[in-house]
Prior knowledge:
The structure holds 2 protein chains of 2 kinds. Chain A is of the alpha/beta class. Chain A has a single domain (2-199, 208-273), classed as Glycerol-3-phosphate (1)-acyltransferase (3-Layer(aba) Sandwich), CATH 3.40.1130. Chain A has 9 helices and 8 strands. Chain A has a 6-stranded mixed beta sheet with strand order 1-8-7-2-6-3, sandwiched between helices. Chain A has a two-stranded parallel ribbon with strand order 4-5. The longest helix of chain A has 29 residues, at 2-30. Chain A is globular, with a radius of gyration of 20 Å. Chain A starts with a helix and ends in a 5-residue tail after the last helix. The relative contact order of chain A is 0.14. Chain B is mainly α. Chain B has one domain (3-80): ACP-like (Non-ribosomal Peptide Synthetase Peptidyl Carrier Protein, Chain A), CATH 1.10.1200.10. The two termini of chain B are 13 Å apart. Classes of the chains: A alpha/beta, B mainly alpha. The interface between A and B is small, with 13 and 9 residues.
Amino acid sequence: xxxxxxxxxxxxxxxxxxxxxxxxxxxxxxxxxxxxxxxxxxxxxxxxxxxxxxxxxxxxxxxxxxxxxxxxxxxxxxxxxxxxxxxxxxxxxxxxxxxxxxxxxxxxxxxxxxxxxxxxxxxxxxxxxxxxxxxxxxxxxxxxxxxxxxxxxxxxxxxxxxxxxxxxxxxxxxxxxxxxxxxxxxxxxxxxxxxxxxxxxxxxxxxxxxxxxxxxxxxxxxxxxxxxxxxxxxxxxxxxxxxxxxxxxxxxxxxxxxxxxxxxxxxxxxxxxxxxxx
Amino acid sequence: xxxxxxxxxxxxxxxxxxxxxxxxxxxxxxxxxxxxxxxxxxxxxxxxxxxxxxxxxxxxxxxxxxxxxxxxxxxxxxxxx
Lengths: 278, 81
């Protein structure tokens, strides 16, 4: 009975918090952000203020999810994310909460967002005011916008898989982000996110919550000094080296996402059957 | 330059710029699928080929390029223009 109540509570809570993002975001966009825009003429200060409001809102949001026991939200190494400047924040992307968790941990950060948001005047005010980069421009223009913002000292979140991580499949990274980091000569900070058992993953409706409470765990990993990748004759080689290092990091960290899953067990049993030790 | 020479030069470029293994470079190899190039690499390659041919290459001329042999053809056309 207790377990059933917990399930119902988490399903309800998951739907509620999804709704809060939509409704809360719209409310902020229609009240707080226009006010900030009117009161702050200077675009730099306006950007910082809007980012700060988003940062605090997301922080509150994550804390509420945790305290209401809809899911556990945990960050390891948060202190490594304060005082970031001109850094590319590279993360895997297993859940819908990833960007929220990162923004809740980093006060001054930008990201690439759907160009469609520019159609709504309120959302436009928010995303443009926050200095976010729209994704519906030519690839060269998008790259340049990312380079410019990093060079200006802003931090930028990227998900190099380009889409949400699929469990049990090796991460295949695009190289665009690596080219941007190299051209901007921006250091990188790696972030590993896990969401176990999975919640809100691709192809699963929100009300189908797992049997036990999900833990969203964000681990802040090492800083990659971009200078170690700049010495190659061609940028294309530098980009490949950088992507290789990050792919190796995730492969080691997540064992291609198969650690503790059925397919890993199958691999292991198969290997043992063929005479290899585990 | 003959087609063979163009192919040899292109093969060299692909190896040194994009770490493509020599044995993968065949006339039929698809740049994006088989050789793992992306659109940024394609732009770099076009720039390099401009230096080789000494001619300005219009991006449109390379829009339809899919395979190594397509690139050889385009470069050959440019040189014989």
